[in-house]
Each structure stands twice: as structure tokens, then as C-alpha cells.
Write a structure and sequence with these properties.
Number of strands: 3
Order of helices and strands: EHHEEH
Strand order of the largest sheet: 1-3-2
Distance between the termini: 55 Å
Strand content: 5-15%
Length: 92
């Protein structure tokens, strides 16, 4: 019997570092893919953002988005959720 331990079966693999910082700058232009990566959106969330009114522009085979459009969408969705009572309130 050896004293070496095998890794725990519940051990999770380390997530890969995201090559994109989690920052959206209002005056920057991003490809839709880059904006989605920065927002940590999966494919479904990206489609949902488009259906919710995210404004993009097509040029060739790519879609582009201005950072302000992403920030505006998040503001709009936050306000809608607050109006519906689904927003989380901070208790200080």
C-alpha cells in the first residue's frame, strides 16, 4: 500500500483563463464574438441579447457592436427587471 493519494473524484479542472478582460468600453467597437466573450455570454445568451434589442452592424461576414450598445442593453434589462420586481436589492 503506497502513501500517494489519487486526486479527489470531486476535483474540478481549473478553468481556462479568459483572454478577454471583463470590461466593455463605451466608445470601443467589438466583434459580436469578442463582446460575448468579455461578457462571459454563451451562445444562447448572445442570441437572447440580440432578440432583446442589442444593436449590431454587419460588415462582410462579421457582426460588430459598439460598447455603448452593450451597456445600454444591460441598463435596459436591469430597469425592466427592477420594474417587474425581479431585481435584487442591496441591503446595507
Amino acid at each position: 500500500m503506497s502513501n500517494t493519494r489519487s486526486p479527489s473524484p470531486k476535483a474540478r479542472p481549473k478553468p481556462e483563463p479568459n483572454e478577454y478582460p471583463a470590461v466593455i468600453e463605451a466608445n470601443a467597437v467589438y466583434t459580436l464574438e469578442e463582446a460575448a466573450k468579455r461578457m462571459r455570454w454563451k451562445r444562447h445568451s448572445t442570441r437572447q441579447a440580440l432578440r432583446s434589442g442589442l444593436v449590431t452592424a454587419r460588415f462582410g461576414s462579421r457582426r460588430y457592436v459598439v460598447g455603448q450598445a452593450v451597456l445600454d442593453l444591460m441598463q435596459k434589462l436591469g430597469e425592466q427587471q427592477a420594474d417587474e420586481g425581479n431585481g435584487e436589492e442591496c441591503a446595507d
